[in-house]
Write a structure and sequence with these properties.
This protein is mainly α and about 230 residues long. The protein folds into 2 domains: about 100 residues, no CATH class; about 110 residues, no CATH class. The strands form 2 sheets. A two-stranded antiparallel ribbon has the order 1-4. It contains 10 helices and 4 strands, in the order ααααααααααββββ. The longest helix has 24 residues. It is globular. Helix 2 runs antiparallel to helix 5 and helix 5 crosses helix 7. The structure holds protoporphyrin IX containing FE. Protoporphyrin IX containing FE (HEM) binds next to helix 7, helix 8 and helix 10.
Length: about 230
């Protein structure tokens, strides 16, 4: 939210509530099932989704209008960058385009299931978790590299979580940055243990495959400061 809206505590708190609500509504398993079956048009018509989405759209539009009224601000968050963006003919984005671009940045699914897998896999391979933790605590800047790509950089068609054909995830580097940030923060602050030694089953959601227990862990504060 800060990357998109900048640091403004009051606004962020309000938006956090709205986005949490929207996420809960969208992640409802029967709704996700129907989304997979009937497609996005069905979701757009669903009342629960519209009621959760409308206030988010309004909040995003309010922010866009407020910033436009403010004029040049020198801020470097996504709202300001998009407001100041111009197409080849010099025209700015329409309000609707701005709203849609910003909502894409604020609502996303695969990052959380990817993170659930990161924790599920690392906890089943304690030696790799320990190595990552050592690197993080030594302040070495997160050099963690999966072994299979140590020799040379994976070519685009080899490593395809973000797609590898004519299209590709628009936010691949943003999502990687987000996951590294979460992983680093969690591992610096708590010690993790698996709840079961067995790997979690793979379950299929509407959008992504997830660990059946969402990457269930036991967490112990690393230092009293975090208790
Ligand atoms: C770990 C997290 C993520 C994974 C694994 C992932 C994966 C993908 C994949 C596989 C595609 C389809 C590529 C294709 O059509 O072949 C895609 C498309 C897309 N993703 Fe992501 N994504 C992630 C996070 C995000 C985030 C955080 C955003 C937005 C902030 C995002 C926005 C998009 C958009 C807009 C497209 C459509 C691009 C287009 O069709 O031109 N993704 N993503």
């Amino acid at each position: 939210m800060r990357a998109v809206f900048g640091d403004d505590k009051g606004r962020l708190d309000r938006l956090r509530g709205l986005l949490t609500n929207l996420t809960e509504v969208v992640n409802d398993s029967s709704r996700l099932g129907k989304l997979a079956l009937f497609g996005p048009r069905w979701l757009e018509r669903s009342r629960g989704w519209r009621e959760a989405m409308a206030p988010v759209e309004r909040a995003v539009l309010d922010e866009v209008r407020r910033r436009r009224a403010e004029g040049e601000s020198g801020r470097r968050d996504a709202v300001s960058m998009l407001i100041e963006a111009r197409s080849e003919d010099g025209s700015p984005l329409s309000e609707k385009d701005l709203r849609d671009e910003l909502l894409t940045l604020l609502t996303d699914g695969p990052t959380s299931s990817s993170l659930a897998w990161v924790f599920e896999r690392l906890l089943r391979h304690p030696e790799k978790l320990a190595r990552l933790q050592e690197e993080l605590l030594a302040g070495e800047g997160g050099r963690f590299v999966p072994e299979r790509f140590l020799e040379r950089r994976a070519a685009v068609p080899t490593w395809i979580p973000f797609g590898g054909g004519a299209r590709r995830c628009l936010a691949a580097s943003y999502a990687e940055q987000e996951m590294k940030r979460v992983l680093r923060t969690v591992l610096e602050e708590v010690e993790l243990q698996p709840v079961e030694s067995r790997a979690e089953r793979v379950t299929r959601g509407a959008i992504a495959f997830s660990p059946a227990q969402h990457g269930l862990v036991m967490a112990k504060p690393r230092t009293p400061a975090y208790a």
